[in-house]
Each structure stands twice: as C-alpha cells, then as structure tokens.
C-alpha cells in the first residue's frame, strides 16, 4: 500500500485508540468556515494528491483529496469540460477534498446543481483507520445508502475524504453577461420569472441597484435570450473577472469579516436586514456588517430557510452566535447518532459543525 | 365487531394477527385495516412478481398522524413494517413480510399545492409521477424524472428508489429534483428534511433518505422542483451495424460536448421484440438502434440535431431519421418506453436487470451477456440508458418451469457481478430490494456494509422497517460466499442434485 496512505491510516488509528482529536486540513483556504476545532493534531491531506483517472467521454474525473482544485479545473478546461458547480477557491491552494467537504458552490449553483449532485463516489478514511469505498465512477448507482452525498458538506465530521469521483460537464459553447439597473424587489421578481422560462440563465446576482445575469449555452440560444431580455452586455473579460470575484469573495461586498449567508426560498421578498447581495436567483443572500444573530436566524427561519455566520469577525463571535443554523430536535438527534456510528470517539473535527458533533 | 382472523394461518400466527389487528384498529378506522386473504392478496408482490408473500396485515392510513401512531404501535409490538406506493418497483423492495404490516400510502394522493413562481410542487407520496407534470403543465412547467412506469408509479416510491428515467442524463435522478421531504421515523418522530431553499444546515440527510428503499422512514410529503418545459424536443433515430459502433457513437456525442436530453440504445433482439408491438418503424436490419433527443429553443435544437446527425454518420450509422413532429417523436420513444410490456408479449415472463457500467465497457459486457445466453439456455434482449451506462437486460423465461426460473436468476446474478467487475454497480435505478441483496456482498466489503447498518441503526434502531431488504447481513454474505465457491468447485455439475 501507498506509504502516504499507510501513514494517514496509522495516524488516525493512533488517534482513535488514544482518544485524540484530529483537525483535517487540505489547502487551508476554508479554515474560517465552521466553528473553531479544539484538536490535538492536524491531519494534513494535501500531500495525498493526484488525478487518478479522467475519462472525458465518460464525464468522470477521479482524484485524491489533496489535488489542487486549480489543477483539476485546468485539466478539465483542456478537454472543454468543467466542474459545473463552480466551486470557490477563496485563495490559492484550495484542494478538491476541501471543496467536497465544505460543499460550497459558486454562481452556477442554482442552474447546474449542488456539489453533492456531482459526487459519484468517495473513498473515505474512517475513524478506525479503515479505507471504505462508496458509490463509484458511474452516473447511476442506487446500491446502498448514498454515503458519498452524505460526506459532501459534512465538514470532515464523518471521516477523511481520500478520493472522490465527480461527474463533470462540457463547458458552455458561449457566455454573455448582461446588466440591468433595478431595485431589490423588482430584481427578485424578475429572477424568479426568468427561472420559470426556458432561458439559458447560468448565474444571477443583484447588488447595489444592479442586476447582473450570465447566459450560457449554444450561440443560438444566447442570441435569442439576449433579444428577449435586453440589458447591457459586459465585455467578456470584465464579466469573467466579476463572476470570479463573487465566487472567491474578493468582491468588496463579500470581502468582509462578519458575513452572513442566508439560504432562502428564491421567492422570499426583501428582508430589510441591511446591505444585501443576492445570488442564485434569490435563493442565496449575503448580509455584511454587524447584524444581531438572533434577528438574522429568525428572519431566515420565518421565510423557510436558514442562516450561516459564514465568516465571523472573531472566534468569540463564532462561539457566541454559532455558525450553522440550529437543527430541530429530532434532526439533531439523528445527527448525533450518525456521528456516533461513524466516529464514536470523536476523532474527526469535533465541534466544527455543531458543538456536540 | 368482526373477529379479525384468517383461515389457513397456523394457530400462533392467527393469534398474533388478531392481536395486531385489534391494536391497529385502535389507531385507524376499521376500513383502513385489511387482513382477510381476499383483501391482502393484491399486495403480495410488487413489480417483481418472482417474489410473493402475503402480509399479515395491510394498513392504508389517511393522515400523517395515523402513520406516526401505526409506527409507534408497531415498534412497541415488534412488528415489521414494509412501505408501499403503487407497487411498480422492480426489485422486490415492497415485498411484504409474513409477520409484518404492509403500509400502503395509496390514500396520500393529494397535490397539496403547485407554486409556479417558486417552481415547486408540494405533493403527498401517493401522487403519481405523471400527475405532477400534468398539474404543473398549465404553468409551462414539469417534473423532470420520467421512469417508464410514470403513468402508474408514485412519487413516494420514486423517492424510496431514487428513480431515474430516459431523461436523467441531462435532468438528473429523483435526488436531483426533490427539494424537501417529511419523513416519519420508526419512533414516530417527524423529520422535516430539506426545504424550498437550495440547501439545509447540517448533514445532507435528505440525500440519504432518497434511495433508502423504505429502510429509514416513511415519507409523508415531498416537495419537488419543477422546471420549464423546453420549447421544442426532437429525436434522432440511428441504426448501426454493431453495438460497438453504436457505443462509439454515444462516446463521440458526449466527447463533442453535447448532453442530449435522452440517449437510449436497443439491441437487435429488443428492436425485434418491440416493433410488432408499437409499429414505430424501427430498422429491423440494425444490430443496434440509438435514440438521441435534443431539447431547448428551436434554434438550439436545430443546431444540435445537425451536429448529432453528423457524428452518427461519421460513426457509420446505416440509417438516420429525425422526428418531424411531436407525434413522431413520441412514436420513436414508444418502442423504448414499452420494451417491458413488449417482452411480456413474446415470453411468458421476463426478468429485468439494472446494472450500470462505465460506457467504455459496453462491448465487453454485451458480448459476455451473449455468451451467458448460451450458458443458461435463455434469451436476453438489451435496452440501455446509453448516456449514463445503465443496462436493462431483459431475460426471457417461463415462470412455470422451475428450472428456467433458477437459470434466469443465476443469469441475472452473473450479469450483475460482471457489472461490478468492470467498475460498475448492481443497480442503477431499480434498487436492491429483496432481489439483489446477495450481489451487495459482491459490491461492498464487510466494513462498508457495517457503515450502512450504522446509518440504518441511527434512523431505525429497532430494525423493523423493511427488514431483510437492501443491506445484507454478515451471515447472509457468508452463506452466499459459500454457495458461490461451491458452484465453481463442485464436481460433476451436470448430475442433478437435491
């Protein structure tokens, strides 16, 4: 067996036996996300890197967790393909493992699907140092529970992702970005109306009285949509840089400490909680600046969604407000039981998602 | 009160039945509790009629509260519970338990509401798949997953099995199109999983519920995503002189950056089987036929159809035809969608398999299946969701011939094990159920099955929900392993035994 892998296994096994906790780390670009973890040691997955298999005509790529996201995307781009969920990097060094463990998606999320939607299989290092394989490299697979999807977004609380197989998609032949001046309420109505029509909208964002819309697809479809929608086209390079700034939070609105993310039904009317940036056709809303946690969570829950303290101003703020929205009692109970089945000694990332997980 | 007994049960079973029926009648109206053989007989099997079992009791609750009470009661009394929708499943996932309650959700048949602005529908689990699209149609919307059984199958069953359909390459499976579900656990607790937002806090439990085959909870309400109906759809029908050439054509289309709305293959036997049934004008000289659909705006479709035709021609298509009207498009599809009933016309029985393979292994797998036809002395027709590698070999046999039944089952098992060997899976969309439980031992290691049991335990510590399905026990795998070694190692296999 691979030396790197046997080393990882040995370290996990020792932690398990010695009841020590491990903080799983890839490129360290998303360390801010989640609650601070009191840990005895770091389990560094970044050396466990490399693309294992890539079959463009099968639309599948398999790689080790430490593989830089940039390398994966470059490889895909050479074949005219992409990760459709447009994952954020935040900064250089982001890895594929971190991308799956956090399940954060970028501007294309609302039209293309979530990170979990594209995870076909994982190889997981469990809390006893065993290597387990779930799912596979095929598009359709309903044998057993879909553990790969459960692992996506689990923030390392169930196990360490060693490898992942992803469904990839062709890049759109053509992209155009349009801008419209309009207020928040009108933008929300417009985005939802477009969602109900067969238009090639691949991303939307509203901020400061301006709605930006990206169209992706065949030349003919984009031309027809442009004629129907109007608006002012942005130069391609400027548009690409702008969407990237949203994806990686270098956009001035998002590059702040104390940033709330609200995940809401897309039709939710403006909440009036302060400066807002809207994405995903209304389903993702960012609030910047100090807002009382209780107020944000209440407003999100009332609208049928939830709120995350995406980037806290300090460790104290994260601890005081919690990061993720509280779970209902029966759902929280299932979480604890699942954690107990996967990782009874609490080896992996204890407390990163919820204090008692 | 009518004495709840059934003639023919042994005294102990009869006594237990009386006890359970009486307890159920305390939480349900009498007409919701069926126990006489003439009433329970219709529930003895699902779409996989090879497996039949009369349930001890059938309950047809009408409210979520009743479902909670039934589950609490069954937990207290230690009674196994098997959920059932329309009973169209193909893996025996709804095969009843002899000492259990069969919980039918047929009365949960209401579309709660359709929200065209938010593009979603809230429906009860007993609503038929197609009925959702019909209700959404006035708004120009539809529910994308379209299993071939969509006129009959229910959304609750689709959630349990994570059903696909011929359009899932582009539009996804059930899991990609369900936003939320209400689930009652064996403890009688209600879990609200997912929401009308695009994600939920914590672990993605909804994804574990979808495709969990009634092992984790009973779904009482589902919120599905609706999407705009494309302006146009057209389909290219192409004939090829070999399945390999057709397989290459599929790979070429995908490599060219096209994700067709549907991409299906039928082999020669399947074409010959369905053509007399549907008269779709299929090419009877072809070794394989591909159906490749493009949807979108008029311009987009015209452009894509052109590219697909060119690629097929380059790959040696011997005949190419594009649907000229919606009626013709539906006719082209009719053959594919009616492959199962057509099989029923030419053979007393058929056994539908559901393996998925990496597409590049298609040639190898199909030639191996051809060899197995000789080995087992049975015919097999292949229909194939070519775009996503999901094979549906239909093994033709006669259920009145016990030996043929056994050969059909062995034939099926060998196909599935080959799928695993080439890097695929034993089930793409039909589920493991009762049928493929032995092959789970081939696909997963002991430790992985342990994780599945852990998940089961976290949701249903009693193990009373659909026992004996989906996940094999260690003992079962050991037994299967022994039989397996036996079969290969046995001397003089031609001598009749037992």
TrEMBL record, chain A:
Pfam families: FAD_binding_4. SUPFAM superfamilies: FAD-binding/transporter-associated domain-like (SSF56176), FAD-linked oxidases, C-terminal domain (SSF55103). Keywords: FAD, Flavoprotein. Residues 1-171 form the FAD-binding PCMH-type domain. The keyword Flavoprotein applies. NCBIfam families: PRK11282.1 (NF008439). This is Glycolate oxidase subunit GlcE. It comes from Pigmentiphaga daeguensis. The lineage of its organism: Bacteria, Pseudomonadati, Pseudomonadota, Betaproteobacteria, Burkholderiales.
TrEMBL record, chain B:
PROSITE patterns: FAD_PCMH. Keywords: FAD, Flavoprotein, Oxidoreductase. Its cofactor is FAD. InterPro entries: FAD-bd_oxidored_4_C, FAD-bd_PCMH, FAD-bd_PCMH-like_sf, FAD-bd_PCMH_sub2, FAD-linked_Oxase-like_C, FAD-linked_OxidoTrans_Type4, Oxid_FAD_bind_N, Vanillyl_alc_oxidase_C-sub2. Residues 51-229 form the FAD-binding PCMH-type domain. The keyword Flavoprotein applies. SUPFAM superfamilies: FAD-binding/transporter-associated domain-like, FAD-linked oxidases, C-terminal domain. The keyword Protein transport does not apply. Pfam families: FAD-oxidase_C (PF02913), FAD_binding_4 (PF01565). This is FAD-linked oxidase C-terminal domain-containing protein.
């Amino acid at each position: 067996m691979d030396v790197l892998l046997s080393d990882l296994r040995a370290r996990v096994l020792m932690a398990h036996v010695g009841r020590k906790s491990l903080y799983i780390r890839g490129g360290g670009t998303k360390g801010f996300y989640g609650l601070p973890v009191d840990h005895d040691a770091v389990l560094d997955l970044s050396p466990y890197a490399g693309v294992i298999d890539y079959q463009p005509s099968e639309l599948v790529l398999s790689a080790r967790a430490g593989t830089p996201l940039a390398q994966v995307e470059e490889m895909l781009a050479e074949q005219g393909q992409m990760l459709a969920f447009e994952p954020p990097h935040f900064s250089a060094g982001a890895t594929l493992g971190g991308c799956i463990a956090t399940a954060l998606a970028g501007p294309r999320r609302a039209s293309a699907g979530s990170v979990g939607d594209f995870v076909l299989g994982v190889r997981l290092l469990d809390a006893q140092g065993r290597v387990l394989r779930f799912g596979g490299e095929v598009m359709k697979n309903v044998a057993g529970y879909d553990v790969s999807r459960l692992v996506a977004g689990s923030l390392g609380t169930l196990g360490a992702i060693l490898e992942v197989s992803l469904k990839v998609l062709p890049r759109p032949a053509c992209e155009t970005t349009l801008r419209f001046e309009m207020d928040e309420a009108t933008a929300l109505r417009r985005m939802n109306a477009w969602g109900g029509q067969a238009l090639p909208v691949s991303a939307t964002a509203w901020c400061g009285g301006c709605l930006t819309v990206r169209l992706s697809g065949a030349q003919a479809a984009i031309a027809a949509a442009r004629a129907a929608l109007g608006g002012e086209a942005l130069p391609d390079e400027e548009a690409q840089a702008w969407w990237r700034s949203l994806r990686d939070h270098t956009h001035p609105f998002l590059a702040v400490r104390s940033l709330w993310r609200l995940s809401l039904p897309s039709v939710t009317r403006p909440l009036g909680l302060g400066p807002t940036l809207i994405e995903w056709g209304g389903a993702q809303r960012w609030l910047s600046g100090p807002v009382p946690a209780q107020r944000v969570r209440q407003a999100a829950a009332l609208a049928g969604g939830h709120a995350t303290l995406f980037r806290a101003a300090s460790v104290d703020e994260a601890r005081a407000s919690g990061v993720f929205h509280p779970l209902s009692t029966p759902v929280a109970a299932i979480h604890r039981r699942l954690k107990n089945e996967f990782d009874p000694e609490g080896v992996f990332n204890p407390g990163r998602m919820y204090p008692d997980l | 009160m009518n004495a709840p007994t059934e003639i023919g049960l042994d005294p102990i079973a009869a006594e237990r039945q009386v006890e359970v029926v009486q307890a159920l009648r305390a939480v349900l109206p009498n007409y919701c509790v069926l126990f006489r053989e003439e009433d329970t007989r219709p529930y003895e099997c699902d779409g996989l009629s090879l497996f039949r079992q009369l349930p001890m009791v059938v309950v047809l609750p009408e409210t979520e509260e009743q479902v909670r009470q039934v589950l609490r009661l069954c937990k207290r009394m230690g009674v196994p519970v098997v959920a059932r929708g329309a009973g169209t499943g193909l893996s025996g996932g709804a095969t009843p338990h002899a000492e259990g309650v069969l919980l039918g959700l047929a009365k949960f048949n209401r579309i709660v509401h359709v929200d065209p602005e938010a593009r979603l529908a809230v429906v009860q689990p007993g609503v038929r798949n197609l009925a959702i699209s019909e209700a959404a149609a006035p708004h120009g919307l539809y529910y994308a997953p379209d299993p071939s059984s969509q006129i009959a199958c229910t959304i609750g069953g689709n959630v349990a099995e994570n059903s696909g359909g011929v359009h899932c390459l582009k539009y996804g499976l059930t899991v990609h199109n369900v936003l939320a579900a209400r689930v009652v656990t064996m403890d009688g607790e209600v879990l609200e999983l997912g929401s009308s937002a695009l994600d939920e806090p914590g672990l993605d439990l909804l994804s574990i519920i979808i495709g969990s085959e009634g092992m984790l909870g009973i779904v009482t309400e589902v919120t599905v995503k609706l999407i705009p109906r494309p302006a146009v759809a057209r389909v290219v029908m192409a004939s090829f002189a070999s399945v390999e050439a057709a397989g290459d054509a599929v790979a070429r289309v995908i490599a060219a950056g096209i994700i067709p709305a549907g991409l299906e293959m039928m082999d020669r036997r399947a074409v010959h089987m369905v053509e007399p049934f549907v008269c779709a004008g299929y090419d009877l000289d072809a070794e394989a036929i591909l159906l490749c659909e493009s949807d979108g705006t008029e311009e987009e479709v015209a452009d894509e159809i052109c590219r697909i035709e060119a690629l097929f021609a380059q790959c040696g298509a011997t005949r190419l035809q594009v649907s000229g009207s919606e009626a013709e498009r539906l006719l082209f599809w009719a053959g594919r969608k009616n492959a199962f009933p057509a099989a029923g016309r030419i053979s007393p029985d058929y056994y539908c398999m559901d393996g998925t393979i990496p597409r590049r292994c298609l040639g190898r797998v199909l030639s191996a299946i051809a060899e197995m036809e000789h080995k087992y002395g049975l015919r097999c027709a292949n229909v194939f969701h070519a775009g996503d590698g999901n094979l549906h070999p239909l093994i033709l046999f006669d259920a009145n011939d016990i030996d043929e039944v056994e050969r059909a089952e062995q034939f099926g098992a060998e196909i599935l094990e080959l799928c695993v060997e080439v890097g695929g899976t034993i089930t793409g969309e039909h589920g493991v159920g009762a049928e493929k439980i032995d092959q789970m031992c081939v696909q997963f290691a002991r430790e992985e099955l342990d994780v599945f049991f852990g998940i089961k335990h976290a949701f249903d510590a009693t193990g009373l929900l659909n026992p004996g399905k989906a996940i094999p026990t260690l003992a079962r795998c050991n037994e299967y392993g022994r039989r397996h070694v036996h079969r290969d190692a046995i001397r003089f296999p031609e001598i009749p035994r037992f």
